[in-house]
Amino acid sequence: MDIGEKDNIHPHNKKDVGERLALLALDNNYDYDLISSGPLYENSKKFNKYIEVDFNSKGSGLMSKGEIEGFEIEGDDMIFYNAKAIIKDNKVKVSGSVASAKIKHQVLN
Q1: pTM assigned to the model
Q2: N or C: which end of the chain has fewer CB within 10 A?
Q3: DSSP the chain
Q4: pLDDT in single tens digits along all 109 residues of the chain
Q5: What is d(CA 41, CA 53) in angstroms, rounded to the nearest whole number?
Q6: Is residue 46 within 8 Å of residue 73, measured between CB atoms?
């Protein structure tokens, strides 16, 4: 999870949400030269044992403070299961016990 809450579209942490919205306004409406967004999904490729996910708007590169959480891979039963994710070569590699090409990641901003 990022700063949001999984089952609540009205997060208690209003300050960080407001700061992110202000950055978007400054960048998109007032032509400030700043990074106003985190990484945005660009594409993914399936390999034998993992799925590689690439993003645009990476700023100075992808980083994580600890374990990357929130990624899931869909099983043959059409149910999503927790997956392991690591950052390698400025992309996220997602792996799990199922081999579907469908993944999802929940980040609430």
Answers
A1: 0.70
A2: N
A3: --SSBTTBSS-S-HHHHHHHHHHHHHHHHS---S--S--EEEEEEE-SS-EEEEEE--TT----SS----EEEE-TTS-EEE-EEEEETTEEEEE-SS--S-EEE----
A4: 467 777 777 878 889 889 989 999 999 999 898 888 888 889 999 888 889 999 988 878 898 888 888 888 888 788 888 899 999 999 999 998 766 666 666 654 3
A5: 8
A6: no
Name the residue type at position 78.
M
104 forms beta bridges with 72
**Does residue 69 contact residue 98 with C-beta atoms inside 8 Å?**
no
Which two tokens mark 40? 């945005």
The amino acid present at 17, given as its one-letter code, is V
Angstrom distance (rounded) from CA 83 to CA 67: 11
